[in-house]
């Protein structure tokens, strides 16, 4: 019995011990679970706090960004205006450059180059303004007589280098010779004098000294035809030719007035004097006002360039130097305007 009681006691104690240990383990496990739950809870709380702080920061960033946008929107028009201005300035610069480039581009509609093409043109009656050729072409058996004959008729023939001719034709295959056609046929001075004297007792010619601007030449031809002048005399050198620009500015007058192109203007003046013409030069230094000139005779009106005027040698050959009185502060007139005013006076004598 004692042993049984002892065993029972030991069993009871063991049961109590095991129960206590189990309860302790349960408590530990519960504590561990609680700690784990608390740690998870703390982590989730921290995450939510971080999210909230991130959200707050994000909201704060968005607010700042929206403020910056509003500021940029407020300042934007000035920037747009400045960019628009710069774009407009660039467009204007490009357009002006394009205009300058377009105005400098040559049109070769009235040009012919190449040996065979030029030779065929020279053997026709087509009007020629100017010929460029190398010294080899000029002295060749094929071209020499033709070029010499055309030169005596007033066509300007220039001997140039191969490179210069390439520059004039913009790199075309010119074979050493090129020419520019004229829009109107020219007459010799003898023919012009003979035709006009048979039709009019007191004809008026206009002789041009150094008018190299085609617009001025076209305007003078237009005015001369309008005031019933009988002919235009232009020198071979130091003068614009009868190009398309001249014909356009003349507005059809070139078809109704003969033009003579002479080798030397001073020799032509001597020839006109022999045929009874008075030589009248327009000059700012003239002694006689044009309104007081009353000579009734065949007249040649000599018009010089705007900047240089009539050359000194040509002035010496003039019978009269007339001036147009100016009352304003402007000291000179355009050459075409001066020619028109003088022709208006002289045609009514």
TrEMBL record:
Domain RNA 2-O ribose methyltransferase substrate binding: 111-187
GO CC terms, sorted: cytosol
Keywords: Methyltransferase, Transferase
Matches recorded under InterPro entries: Alpha/beta_knot_MTases, Ribosomal_eL30-like_sf, rRNA_MeTrfase_TrmH, SpoU_MeTrfase, SpoU_subst-bd, tRNA_m1G_MTases_N
GO MF annotations, alphabetized: RNA binding; RNA methyltransferase activity
Amino acid composition bias (Basic and acidic residues), ranges on this chain: 12-38
This protein's record includes keyword Transferase: yes
Region (Disordered) residue spans: 1-40
GO annotation terms (biological process): methylation; RNA processing
Biased composition (Polar residues): 1-11
A Pfam family of this chain: SpoU_sub_bind
Record NCBIfam families: rRNA_methyl_3 (TIGR00186)
Family listed: Belongs to the class IV-like SAM-binding methyltransferase superfamily. RNA methyltransferase TrmH family.
Protein name: RNA methyltransferase TrmH, group 3
Species of origin: Prochlorococcus marinus (strain MIT 9515)
């Amino acid at each position: 019995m004692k042993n049984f009681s002892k065993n029972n006691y030991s069993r009871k104690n063991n049961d109590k011990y095991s129960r206590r240990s189990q309860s302790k383990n349960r408590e530990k496990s519960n504590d561990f679970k609680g700690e784990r739950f608390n740690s998870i809870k703390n982590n989730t709380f921290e995450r939510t706090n971080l999210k909230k702080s991130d959200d707050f920061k994000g909201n704060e960033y968005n607010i700042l960004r929206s403020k910056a946008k509003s500021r940029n929107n407020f300042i934007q028009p000035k920037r747009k205006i400045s960019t628009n201005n710069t774009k407009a300035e660039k467009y204007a610069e490009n357009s002006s450059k394009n205009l300058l480039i377009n105005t400098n581009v040559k049109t070769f509609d009235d040009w012919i180059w190449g040996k065979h093409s030029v030779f065929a043109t020279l053997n026709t009656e087509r009007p020629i303004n100017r010929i460029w050729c190398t010294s080899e072409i000029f002295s060749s058996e094929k071209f020499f007589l033709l070029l010499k004959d055309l030169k005596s008729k007033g066509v300007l023939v220039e001997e140039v280098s191969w490179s210069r001719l390439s520059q004039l034709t913009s790199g075309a295959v010119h074979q050493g010779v090129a020419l520019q056609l004229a829009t109107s046929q020219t007459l010799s001075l003898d023919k012009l004098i003979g035709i006009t004297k048979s039709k009019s007792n007191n004809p008026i010619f206009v002789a041009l000294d150094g008018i190299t601007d085609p617009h001025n030449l076209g305007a003078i031809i237009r005015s001369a035809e309008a005031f019933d002048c009988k002919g235009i005399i232009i020198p071979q050198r130091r003068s614009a030719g009868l190009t398309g620009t001249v014909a356009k500015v003349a507005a059809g007058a070139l078809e109704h007035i003969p033009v003579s192109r002479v080798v030397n203007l001073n020799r032509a003046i001597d020839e006109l004097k022999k045929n009874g013409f008075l030589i009248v030069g327009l000059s700012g230094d003239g002694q006689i006002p044009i309104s007081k000139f009353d000579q009734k005779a065949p007249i040649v009106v000599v018009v010089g360039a705007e900047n240089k005027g009539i050359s000194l040698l040509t002035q010496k050959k003039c019978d009269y130097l007339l001036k147009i009185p100016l009352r304003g502060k402007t000291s000179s007139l355009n050459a075409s305007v001066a020619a028109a005013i003088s022709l208006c006076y002289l045609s009514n004598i």
